[in-house]
UniProtKB/TrEMBL annotation:
UniProt GO BP: prenylation
Catalytic EC class: transferase
Protein name as annotated: Geranylgeranyl transferase type-2 subunit alpha
A Pfam match: PPTA
Catalysis: reaction(s): geranylgeranyl diphosphate + L-cysteinyl-[protein] = S-geranylgeranyl-L-cysteinyl-[protein] + diphosphate
Any one annotated GO CC term: Rab-protein geranylgeranyltransferase complex
Amino acid sequence: MGDLKDKLQKSRPFTTQKIELNFFNYSALHHRSITLPEPLSADVFFDEIGLVQQAVFTEPDDQSAWFYYRWLLTSMVELVESSAEDASGFLKSQVQWLYELLEMESEVK
């Protein structure tokens, strides 16, 4: 099992390359989700949130990034279980960027 995990983690740069070429590559986003360590570290989590925010601001109508974002938020529960204050602060920051997106893309629903 450890060998498979190592192979998956080594393929993460490939998924990064594919996502940077096309943020809306659902296959690359899905594959990326299985290459990430479990549980997610805070650094990895925030890097992935940044990746999703870039994708969403680029094309808010595309569902690929939203599905990945939803998965990340689900993963966040394990990351911040120990601190409700940290979770609250993070969620407030997410609401803020969603409001910014809504202001910029008011016709997108």
